[in-house]
Amino acid sequence: MPLEGTLVRLREERAEDIPLLTALRNDLDTQAWSKTLPPDFTEPMLRKRFEAREFSYDPLEGRFIVERLDTGEAVGYIGYSHLERRLGVSIGVMISKAAWGKGFAEEANDLLLRFLFHELGLRVVWLWTHSGNPRAIRLAEKVGFQVAARFRDAIFKDGRMLENVVMDQTREEFYARHPDLVDGLPSLNPGL
Predict the structure, then answer these.
(1) Which candidate in 4, 16, 76, 184 could, as Cys together with 9 as Cys, close a disulfide (CB 3.0–4.6 Å)?
(2) How many structural domains does the chain have?
(3) What is the β-pairing status of strands 88-95 and 124-130?
Protein backbone atom coordinates (compact mmCIF):
# COMPACT_ATOMS: atom_id res chain seq x y z
CA MET A 1 0.00 0.00 0.00
CA PRO A 2 1.49 3.37 -0.97
CA LEU A 3 1.96 6.24 1.46
CA GLU A 4 -0.14 9.13 0.21
CA GLY A 5 -0.23 12.85 0.94
CA THR A 6 -1.92 15.75 -0.85
CA LEU A 7 0.80 16.24 -3.50
CA VAL A 8 2.62 12.92 -3.76
CA ARG A 9 2.36 9.23 -3.16
CA LEU A 10 5.29 7.02 -2.18
CA ARG A 11 4.95 3.76 -4.03
CA GLU A 12 7.05 0.70 -4.78
CA GLU A 13 9.75 0.80 -7.42
CA ARG A 14 8.85 -0.62 -10.81
CA ALA A 15 11.00 -1.66 -13.76
CA GLU A 16 9.83 1.38 -15.72
CA ASP A 17 11.36 3.66 -13.03
CA ILE A 18 14.91 2.53 -13.80
CA PRO A 19 15.67 5.30 -16.37
CA LEU A 20 14.57 7.96 -13.86
CA LEU A 21 16.60 6.37 -11.05
CA THR A 22 19.66 6.16 -13.30
CA ALA A 23 19.38 9.84 -14.21
CA LEU A 24 18.90 10.88 -10.58
CA ARG A 25 21.82 8.78 -9.33
CA ASN A 26 24.17 10.15 -12.00
CA ASP A 27 23.42 13.80 -11.27
CA LEU A 28 25.43 15.07 -8.29
CA ASP A 29 22.89 17.88 -7.81
CA THR A 30 19.89 15.58 -7.45
CA GLN A 31 21.44 12.73 -5.52
CA ALA A 32 23.10 15.13 -3.04
CA TRP A 33 24.77 12.41 -1.01
CA SER A 34 27.95 13.36 0.76
CA LYS A 35 30.04 11.16 -1.51
CA THR A 36 31.62 12.38 -4.71
CA LEU A 37 31.19 9.55 -7.12
CA PRO A 38 32.04 9.94 -10.19
CA PRO A 39 28.54 9.13 -11.32
CA ASP A 40 28.65 5.95 -13.32
CA PHE A 41 25.38 4.17 -12.57
CA THR A 42 23.94 2.37 -15.57
CA GLU A 43 20.46 1.09 -16.27
CA PRO A 44 21.70 -2.54 -16.30
CA MET A 45 23.25 -2.02 -12.82
CA LEU A 46 20.00 -0.66 -11.39
CA ARG A 47 17.93 -3.30 -13.20
CA LYS A 48 20.10 -6.03 -11.62
CA ARG A 49 19.54 -4.50 -8.17
CA PHE A 50 15.82 -4.22 -8.84
CA GLU A 51 15.51 -7.82 -10.04
CA ALA A 52 17.58 -9.20 -7.14
CA ARG A 53 15.42 -7.71 -4.40
CA GLU A 54 13.29 -9.91 -2.22
CA PHE A 55 9.55 -9.41 -2.49
CA SER A 56 8.99 -10.02 1.19
CA TYR A 57 8.59 -7.40 3.87
CA ASP A 58 12.03 -6.40 5.08
CA PRO A 59 11.87 -3.35 7.34
CA LEU A 60 15.65 -2.89 7.33
CA GLU A 61 15.48 -1.09 3.98
CA GLY A 62 12.72 0.67 2.10
CA ARG A 63 12.83 2.22 -1.36
CA PHE A 64 10.01 4.31 -2.77
CA ILE A 65 9.29 6.26 -5.92
CA VAL A 66 7.89 9.75 -5.36
CA GLU A 67 4.92 10.09 -7.70
CA ARG A 68 2.82 13.20 -8.28
CA LEU A 69 -0.83 12.64 -7.35
CA ASP A 70 -2.19 15.02 -9.99
CA THR A 71 -0.39 13.50 -13.00
CA GLY A 72 0.94 10.13 -11.85
CA GLU A 73 4.42 11.20 -13.01
CA ALA A 74 7.39 9.75 -11.11
CA VAL A 75 9.51 12.73 -9.98
CA GLY A 76 11.95 11.20 -7.53
CA TYR A 77 13.03 8.62 -5.05
CA ILE A 78 13.08 8.44 -1.25
CA GLY A 79 14.26 5.62 0.91
CA TYR A 80 15.69 4.40 4.17
CA SER A 81 18.53 2.04 4.97
CA HIS A 82 20.66 0.71 7.80
CA LEU A 83 17.65 0.40 10.07
CA GLU A 84 18.41 -0.50 13.67
CA ARG A 85 15.15 -1.94 15.02
CA ARG A 86 13.36 0.35 17.46
CA LEU A 87 16.26 2.78 17.37
CA GLY A 88 17.01 4.60 14.13
CA VAL A 89 17.58 4.71 10.41
CA SER A 90 19.22 6.81 7.69
CA ILE A 91 17.14 8.35 4.90
CA GLY A 92 17.87 9.88 1.51
CA VAL A 93 15.84 11.66 -1.13
CA MET A 94 16.38 12.58 -4.80
CA ILE A 95 13.93 14.75 -6.73
CA SER A 96 14.29 15.60 -10.42
CA LYS A 97 15.34 19.20 -11.02
CA ALA A 98 12.13 19.94 -12.95
CA ALA A 99 10.18 19.15 -9.77
CA TRP A 100 12.27 21.28 -7.39
CA GLY A 101 10.48 23.99 -5.42
CA LYS A 102 6.99 22.49 -5.74
CA GLY A 103 6.70 20.90 -2.28
CA PHE A 104 7.17 17.31 -3.47
CA ALA A 105 10.39 16.64 -1.53
CA GLU A 106 8.98 18.21 1.63
CA GLU A 107 5.83 16.10 1.55
CA ALA A 108 7.76 12.93 0.60
CA ASN A 109 10.03 13.46 3.62
CA ASP A 110 7.06 14.05 5.90
CA LEU A 111 5.28 10.90 4.67
CA LEU A 112 8.38 8.79 5.20
CA LEU A 113 9.06 10.29 8.64
CA ARG A 114 5.46 9.62 9.65
CA PHE A 115 5.89 5.98 8.60
CA LEU A 116 9.24 5.58 10.36
CA PHE A 117 8.22 7.18 13.65
CA HIS A 118 4.51 6.35 13.83
CA GLU A 119 4.44 2.89 12.22
CA LEU A 120 7.91 1.46 12.84
CA GLY A 121 8.36 3.10 16.25
CA LEU A 122 11.85 4.47 15.65
CA ARG A 123 13.56 6.84 18.08
CA VAL A 124 15.74 8.84 15.66
CA VAL A 125 16.17 9.39 11.91
CA TRP A 126 19.46 10.55 10.39
CA LEU A 127 20.46 11.95 7.02
CA TRP A 128 23.82 12.84 5.52
CA THR A 129 24.59 15.68 3.15
CA HIS A 130 27.40 18.19 2.71
CA SER A 131 27.96 21.90 3.26
CA GLY A 132 27.98 22.51 -0.50
CA ASN A 133 24.31 21.54 -0.71
CA PRO A 134 22.35 24.31 1.04
CA ARG A 135 19.08 23.19 -0.65
CA ALA A 136 19.26 19.81 1.09
CA ILE A 137 20.10 21.41 4.44
CA ARG A 138 17.20 23.89 4.16
CA LEU A 139 14.76 21.11 3.19
CA ALA A 140 15.90 18.96 6.10
CA GLU A 141 15.49 21.85 8.53
CA LYS A 142 12.05 22.61 7.10
CA VAL A 143 10.87 19.07 7.93
CA GLY A 144 12.33 19.13 11.45
CA PHE A 145 15.95 17.98 11.17
CA GLN A 146 18.81 19.77 12.84
CA VAL A 147 22.56 19.54 12.39
CA ALA A 148 23.95 16.87 14.71
CA ALA A 149 27.57 16.76 13.48
CA ARG A 150 29.91 18.29 10.97
CA PHE A 151 33.04 16.58 9.71
CA ARG A 152 35.38 19.27 8.45
CA ASP A 153 37.31 18.87 5.19
CA ALA A 154 35.67 15.47 4.64
CA ILE A 155 34.63 15.89 1.01
CA PHE A 156 36.45 17.25 -2.01
CA LYS A 157 33.93 18.47 -4.57
CA ASP A 158 33.97 21.17 -7.24
CA GLY A 159 37.61 21.95 -6.44
CA ARG A 160 37.08 22.67 -2.74
CA MET A 161 36.91 20.95 0.60
CA LEU A 162 33.45 20.65 2.15
CA GLU A 163 32.01 19.51 5.44
CA ASN A 164 30.11 16.26 5.70
CA VAL A 165 26.90 17.24 7.53
CA VAL A 166 24.92 14.77 9.62
CA MET A 167 21.39 15.85 10.55
CA ASP A 168 18.91 14.11 12.80
CA GLN A 169 15.38 14.26 14.14
CA THR A 170 14.20 12.55 17.30
CA ARG A 171 10.86 10.96 17.95
CA GLU A 172 9.95 13.68 20.47
CA GLU A 173 10.78 16.40 17.94
CA PHE A 174 8.67 14.70 15.27
CA TYR A 175 5.61 14.44 17.53
CA ALA A 176 6.04 18.05 18.72
CA ARG A 177 5.73 19.06 15.04
CA HIS A 178 2.68 16.79 14.57
CA PRO A 179 0.19 17.45 17.38
CA ASP A 180 -2.46 15.61 15.32
CA LEU A 181 -0.62 12.33 16.04
CA VAL A 182 -0.45 10.56 19.40
CA ASP A 183 2.82 8.88 20.30
CA GLY A 184 1.95 5.42 21.58
CA LEU A 185 5.43 4.67 22.93
CA PRO A 186 6.82 5.77 26.28
CA SER A 187 9.39 8.55 26.16
CA LEU A 188 13.01 7.70 26.89
CA ASN A 189 13.34 11.27 28.17
CA PRO A 190 10.41 11.70 30.58
CA GLY A 191 11.71 15.11 31.72
CA LEU A 192 11.30 16.60 28.24
Answers:
(1) 4
(2) 1
(3) parallel
